[in-house]
Structure formats: structure tokens, C-alpha cells
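Example 3.2
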Amino acid sequence: MAEALVYLNGRTVPASQAHLAIFDAGVVMGATVTEMTRTFRHVPFRLEDHLERLFRSLRYVRFRIGPTQEELAAVSRELVEHNAKLLPPGGELGLIQFVTAGEVAAYAGFERGEGLATGVGAGRPDLSPLPEREGTGRRQAEMTPTVCVHTFPLDWRRWERALREGAHLVTPSIRHVPPQCCDPKIKYRSRMHYYLADQEARLVDPAAAALLLDLEGNVTETSAANFLMVEGGTIVSPTTRNTLPGISRATVIDLAAQLGIPFVERDIQVYHVINADEAFLTSTPYCLMPVARINGLPIGDGKPGKIVRRLRDAWNELVGLDIERQILEGSNG
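Structure, written as C-alpha cells:
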């Protein structure tokens, strides 16, 4: 039986043979940067934009990898071409690239006899690839980043209900990580705050997602999407000071310009969202998601508004298919 392929550290292997070491920094520390692209008709959408952001993130976190951006693009397309053949009719792929800091020497046992004592503090591994330690005559093993590219079938059932009814967002007590701690322009997997926020939101409504606020009470983003709202015919976005500049968000900016819809960035509080005309999310798998409620209160009339419909129609034209219909029909397949 044919099996999906995965690229891992320079080799293309069957998915069943692709394994990450338990002492990889992606597991031990969550030290991972990542990107996700989706396909339309089995062609990755804005792949170059995602990879450009990945390589900016790599530079920021000081991960030096062997493959170039062009080589990762070629690998990604090859995997999509092979793995798409395994999809059912109408299926599409999510395409992931991720890079971790590599295997942690202290946990991997590269320095026998020292064990965890080489870490910075009790039980904490030393992630710094140091030069030869003065007076020891030995070198600490330098970490080599783990590079992986893989795909997975998009599960339309995850978004079917929210597309039909509109998403419900809840603002939890968990606040977004301040930009002074980690720059939000990198897409990373150290996401415990997102996990906790979503868990708290689901105590209010099992179908809800968390919309995180920053320390000043400004709206930021969800764990998987940018948030935008419409006020007086203008699309209003939180600033990118503490949100990821999403590729889907960038597509909305492009489409809004084509349609003559004003777009502005500014600080937004929950007050503004409650009083908005409409609101929506942008994210790679579903592109646009109307938001019907926040904290149990309807936004506008609680239904997808005309701006969302215009953007959706333009996006459908851009990719050559009806995205909403693909998800709704696929969820019943």
C-alpha cells in the first residue's frame, strides 16, 4: 500500500519511518519555527511567501540549516505531488515545514559523566553550542537543526460547523505572550499559552476558540488565526506589534485593495468588537471564517456580512474554486 513521504534531515522517507528524537529541542524546549501552506487543486498556495517568512524566522532564532529556500520549495512541491495521489477525490493537503534547534547534547548523553549537570540550572539543558571549554580540552557537541517537511490531509469536518454558523470567540484570562518576550513576527511552536487559552474558552462553549488579549487589554489573535473586524465599511486589524502578520491576512489586504475596501491597523478592545458590523478570521486551511459571537454576544446580526462575502467571492476567483463549498461538501463525504 502506498504511503505518504516525509523529508527529514536531507532524506525522503515513508511517513512510518520519520521519527523525531525524544531529546530533540523541539520536544525538550519547544524550540521550533514552522510554516503551514495548503493546496488548492493540489498546488501549494503562496508557498514562496511562507518560505520567505520561515527563513526570516530562522535568521532571527539563529538556526543555520543546510537546505536553501529554493531547495525547500522544490522538496515541498515534490512531496505534494507524491502525497496528493493518495488523497480521496476533492481532498487537499496541508503542507508543513518545521525546523527545531536540534538534539540537546545533555539529554542525548553526548557528554557522558556530566549528564544534566551541563545544563543551565538544575535539570535544564544547555542549548548553547559553545566553543571548546577552557581547561577541559573537550568541545561541547554542537547542535545541528532538525529540518522536516511533511503533509497531511485537510479534515474539512473541523471547520464545517463554524463556516455554517459563524465562529464563537471567547476572551480568556490567559494573556498573549508580550512582544518583549518573543517577537510575534516569527511563527513558532512554543504554544502552551494558546493551549491553555483554548481550554479555558471551551469551558464557556465547547465549540469556542480563544481570542487572546495583550497585557493592556488589546485584541491580538487566536491560536490559529488572525482576527479582523469591519467598522463602517472599513476592515480593521489589530496592529502587528503583538500579532503574526499572517499570509492569509496579507491575501485579505491584497483583495481589499482590489475591491476598494479600506483597510486600517489600530489597537482594538473587546468593546470595539462587540460593536463591530461584522468580524472574521483568516487562516491557511479555511482562508476566511465569519465570526458570529464574542463572549456570547452577537456581532452585527450574528451572520456573515457583506464584506466577508465580497472577500470570499474574490478569494474563490483567485484560486479557481468555491472554498466554502469545498469544505462543506467535503465534510459530508
